[in-house]
Structures are given as structure tokens and as C-alpha cells.
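Q: Joint fold for the lines below.
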Amino acid sequence: MQIPALKNNTASNQPTASCHGGPEVDTAGLPLIAIVGNPNVGKSVLFNALTGAYVTVSNYPGTTVEVSRGKGRLGSNEVGVVDTPGMYGLLLITEEERIARRILLKDRPDVVVHVVDAKNLERMLPMTLQLIEAGLSVILNLNLMDEAERMGVQVDAVALERALGVPVVTTALTLGRGIGQLKEHIAAYANGRSADKLSNTSLRTHRYHTVIEEALAEIENTMSGSYQMSRREIALLLLQDDDEIVSLVREQEGRSTNEILCIAESARARFSRPISYIVARKLQEATQYILQPALRLPERRVSGFAEWLSEAMMKPWSGLPILLLSLFLMYEFVGVLGAQTLVDFLEGSVFGEYINPWVNQILSTLIPWLVVRDLFGGQYGIITLGVRYAVAIILPIVGTFFIAFSIIEDSGYLPRLAMLVDRVFKKIGLNGRAVIPMVLGFGCDTMATIVTRTLETRRERLLSTFLLALAIPCSAQLGVMLGLLAGRPDLLGLWIAIVTGVFLLVGFLAAKLMPGEQPSFYMELPPLRIPTFTNVLVKTYTRMEWYFREVFPVFILASVFIWFGQLTGLFDLLVNTLLPIVRWVGLPDETAVAFLFGFFRRDYGAAGLYDLLGVMSGSQLLVATTTLTLFVPCIAQFSVTLKERGWKTALAISVFIFPFAFLVGGLLSRLLVLIGARL
Amino acid sequence: MKLSENTEKLLEILWVTIEEEDKTGLQKKDVVEDSGDELVQQGLAEWKGNTLSPTPMGKLEAARAIRRQRLGERLLADVLIQEDVLLDDHGCHMEHALFDGIDESICTLLGHPSFCPHGRPIPPGECCRQMRATVGKLITPLSQLHSMQSGDIAYTKMNNQRHLQKLMSMGVLPGVTIKLLHRSPSFVFEAGYSQFAVDEDIAADIYVRLNGL
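A: Joint structure:
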């Protein structure tokens, strides 16, 4: 391996005329800054710092499955910023990485900021080498310097800069440290955007095995297409048999493709191990060489409270109590403060005493037709039902849940929970990783269904989508359920036990029935961190914004549909169809209305039960809440399932769940009669 | 019984054809006559029509030869770290140096590996069945380490591309020092300043050269 003397890249950094013309309002015309890096190194924090007030986030940070784009200002120039899901390198493992790499391949970023965890440079620098090799304009951002310093890890940024030939900036982004300097470097790079950055960098930190180098040269010479990365990197990924790159090359090279694939194939045949492994080894070796003069590790490991707590979370005997404690705290925050105190206030006082009477009064003076009045007001009107539900019930419950979830997410607890439950989850065909969509499902199943994308295999995505639809009640529904069962802790306990049992049993059977690859579990355990206030707020806000954009229209639509159903008599027809089923399950006739509402929103249905509290026995209440929990997913979740998994799956899931929910209800009620339970 | 090198090679090919390619034997046109005859004379193989297939004794003998060959490859790759070259040629010569008995010691030394560097299975020997550790293990899978034990990664299993990719993304590559922190409920290890949780399957793919040896 040879490291040639530093040849500064500034020649290509001179401001040149932008090929896209002057700055435009549209992000498409702006210099583009891409933020890349491993999961959990602070990419989203940087994104927020760069975009500031201009942010248009459309994702779920931490469990980022979609790309965030925003506009920022560097000096006097406006720039576009794109945040990407975490990636470990240019060779893909997960779907998220595909999304991240596609930005590098297709979007032609002018600057690529590689954010890394300073104390884990040894592991993260190989990706920097790949990015440089790919001919991208890389800025290496050594983040989390505060943690590194606490651990006694010392990094010589100047030595690193010299060895790599790219700017290296140290920051502690959550504390706002170093952000000014980073912005300056980005601005300097962004101004110097030019096409010749794509030519191979003259600084080469490493050379691969001769066989690989020869194959690379041969492929590069055969190539004639145009790529957003250096041909060397494209050829290297091709050698590693990357599907997407193979099709990209096919697209670009046309007839020479076969020749290129042949070269790659014969190079692969020369090695007994996958080329990806040999490449990884070489990058690792180069990293060690580069870091030797630049990185100083402490003799002894620092161990503080965070490390102690982390240990406690992972040991079963202490981990379980910690889990129960966090569940209890969450219940107090979401279930009591959100679902009871805040809902009572908004629903009872604000809507019950002020808005609804006021709306109804205005409607009755302005609109002479009862039919139109009912569309907006009355029992099921857009404002009196749709808006009231959204604002008075959903907002406080979902809002408090998302705050709690963001805190848990930012603290680093979820990966530890994943590690704790992996063995149980394996039994239901999933792996510990699936705990993240499952926990999120208690907030919003619709959002959680989207997050199942982060799971690796199709089978796992399918199983988790199914279980989310069946047995994970969302926070809105949970809030109403808890309210319903509030006076009856015995029923609450039974309800939890039954739903958990169904979750595990059905999951177990579904995993048995659905053949496929055994899931494997691997997860990085980030250090425990104290969540920052602003980050929690930003996350909660973006989630709420998404929630209202996606789900609010469904509420309105549901109100309109119910109005229409009542007007045309369709509603009565459907209630009558449900009647025999409801009777079979052993519930009062009135519950049929609640179930019908459940089609629109799970919690609508649960809320419908409120009015029936007086007429139902304890047993009936248990049967009703259990059935409704398992009952069909709401319209929003159904539509997302349709989008993510296709109509066959979405339909199959619903077709299974509908009779199954009633079956469980019916069996439960018969069992209760049989054992003579008086609840 | 001492077979000529070519005959032993044929026996190995025969074994691979049957055990790993699920065929009944080799066709006459694929068999070098002398070697075929020698195998039949020694009672190691027999002709069924035009197909040469091994006798039970032949299978046993072949498995031993294959085992020696693949252990030899392992030794080359893991201890002598000759990974970037085609190993077959070396392994071929090596197996003749590995007499029965010595291969047991080498097998134990290497932590009873179950596959060669190419990812093909190594037929288990008596020592693997008893998991004998008399020589003192040099290399052992992470899944068999005690918690708080540490060592350098010697190699990772190659036959599962998905696992391998994951291991590489975690920076689990030969030479990296790792320490096992927990064994239950999942395996948690530390590499550098990062901690990872993996299941037993993945932990069994990581072979560690124990510290102090």
C-alpha cells in the first residue's frame, strides 16, 4: 500500500460557472448537499442544523425509511440538503441502504458530508475511503467528539486530512460545536462544484490485489457510459456482484455489458472468497494504516453511569423490571395524562361545551336543510365528529405517545429491548429488530406498517404487517380501551393477556405456515444518551405533521361516508348484516354500530362502546374490547398495507382478520359461560 | 492402504459427486481407467453398469481424504493467513502431509471447523464428535466463548453471503479485537467502541483467536 504525497484538491474547488444556472427557488436547481453515514451518528441533527427553519421533513428520524430534503442557507447562497437513511458502505445489505445509495448514484450531490462517530473511526473510515474512491466531493465530519473526549479518544484531524486529501471537520453537533466551521467547508465545496470532481481522484490510499486491479482497469477501459460515480467504484461494485449496479451497467453499456460481466466473473473465479470480503479487508487495512498516526486510544476504558445502566438493561433479571417500569411511565404519560386528562379537557370542555353547541347553533340558523346540517354537525358531522375526534382525542393521545416514543428512541433503549426479545420474536418468525415497528405500532399502526420496510426479508415484513393489523392496538384505540376498562383492573389484565396470547399464538402459527429463510438478528447497540429537548420536539413535530397529513383526511372522509350511509339507508343495512354476527358473539345489538364504525377507525369503534358501558356486563365488555382490538385495521392502515405489500396481501390480511376477530370473541364468550365466570 | 495421488484424487471426486452434487456416481467417460481399476481392486469402488460408485469402505476413506484436504486449506488460510490466493493447489499437497491422527490435532487446534475456506463442509472426525480439547484450542467460535472473554477475530464463515455482509458492516473482520459481553438472551460483543447484539447463528460464524495464546 502506498500513500502518495498530498495533492490538494483545491484546484478543482475553484468556483466555476454552475452548469445548472443561478440559484432557483426550486431545490432541483440548488447545489445539493448529501448527508451520509452509519446509523446513529447524528446525520439528522446535521440536517436540522443545516436546514434550520426551512426544513421540510417527511420522515421518521432514527427509523428513517424515507429521504428528507430541505433547503438551507450557507452564507449568501441557498442550498438543497438531503438526509439519507443509515448505510454501512456502498455495498448494500438493507433496503434503506439502497435508498441512500440511490441518492449518490442518481442525484449528483455537489458535496457529500460523511458523518462518522469519532470514537469508532476504525470501523467507519472504510466507507470514507469508498466515497473518495467513488470520486465524490467528500467532507469527513468527525461527530460525537464530546463522547470521544469523555472516553479519552484523541483524533488528529490535520493528520487525517493530510492522509485522506479531503477536508476533515470535528463537531459535537448536538451541542452545536463546530457547526460553523463545517458550514464554511461545505460552502467552499459547494461553490466549487464542477463536473471534473467525478474524474478519479489522484490520491490513492490503497491498492487492491493485483487480480482485482487488473480487472478494474480492464472494465474501466471497456466502459463508455456515464455514471455519477467514478468508473473505478462502479467497476469495483460490479466485481462484488451488486445487482443494482449490474442493471445500471446494463443500461449504460448496452452491448459491451456481457464483455464487462465476463471480466468480472473471471476475476471472481480467481478467488476462493467473495471479492466483497477481500475488498473489505483491504479497506480495513488501509484504514489502520491511515489511523496509526492520527488516532490515539486510551489505555483503559472509561465506564460511567450510562455503561452501568446499559448493562442493567440487557441482563434479563434487571432488564425486565426496567421494561415494566418504562411501560408504567409510558402509561402514566400517554394513558393518564394524554388519554384521560387532556382528552377530558379537549373533548368535554372545549368541544362539548363550546365548539359543538356553537357549530350546531350556527348551522341551525344558517342552513335550513337537516341533511346538510348533519353533514357538518349533529351526531356524526364533519366538525362535530371528524374534527372533534382528530383534535380532541387523537391529538393528545398520539401527541403524548410520540413524545414518549421520541424520548425512548433517542435514549438508545430500543436496540437493547430488541436484544432482550429476540428469542421470543424468533418464535413468531421475526427477529429482535421487529420490536421497533411493533412498539411504534402502539402509537400508530399505519406509520408502523411503513417502518416494517426496515426489516430484512419479505417474510418478516409480511408477518409483521399482519401482526400489526391483528393484535397491536394503536394509541388512539389503546387510549379509548384503557378508558373503557379503567374501572375494571381485572378485565384490563385479562384483555392484555388474551391479546398478547393471540399475538404470540397467531404469530407462531403464521411463521410455521409461511416458509422462508430463518431471520437473523444483528443490531448495533448505540451508547445510551440523554435525549435533547429540541430533537425530541422536532421528531414529535415531524411525526405529528405526517400523522395529520395522512390520517386527518381519513377522518373527514369517514364522517362524510357515515353521513352518506345514514342518508341512503346503507348504514342501517350494514348494521343489520352485522347483527347476527354480533349476537353470535354474545354482545348487545347496539354494539353492531360500534363495529361498523370500527371499519373507519379502530378507535371510533371503541369509542362507540363508551355509550354502552351501562348495558354491558363485565364479560360482554371483555368480549367486546377483545374482538374490537383484533378487528380489521383502519382504512389508513389498510391503504398503507395495500401500498407497501400489494393488494393481495392487504386483502388476505383483512379477509382473515374479520372472521377471526369474531371467532375469538365468540369462543371467549362461550368459554366464559362454560366456566361460569361472573365478571 | 496406500493409494497413488491420482487415485486418491479420483476417490475424492467420487465422494464430492455423491455427497455434494447428489449424483449416483461417475460415468465411465469421466474416469481415468488406471485409477478406476485401482479403486475397484482395493475394494473402494465398484462398477454398476457404466457408473462408478464408491463402496461403504470407499466412502469412509474418501471422507477422510476430503477432511484432510479441507483442514489443510483451513490451516493455510487461518494460521498462515494465505487468503487472497487460490487455495486448492496448496491444500492438495498439504493433505498428504496430514496423516490420520495429526489431522485430529490440527482440527482441535482450529476449533473443529465445519467448513473449508470455500464454504464447503469438512466431514467431522472422531475429535469433533467428542469435541475434544486436549490440545488447547487456538480458535473458537464466538458462540462458545465465556462472557468477558476476548480475542482477535481469526476468520468468519464464508458460506452465508447474507451473514457475511452483516458481519462486514459491523466491522467484524479478521484482526479486529472483540470481547464477548453477554451470552444471554442474545450475544452481545464489543468491537472498538461499538457494541453489537447478534443471535447465536451469527455468533457461531465468528471465529476468534483467543488472547494469551
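Q: Anything notable?
A: Chain B has three domains: 5-54, 68-130, 139-210. Chain B touches chain A at residues 77, 83-88, 117-118, 158, 161-171, 173-176, 181-182, 184-186, 188, 191-199, 201-202 (CB under 8 Å).
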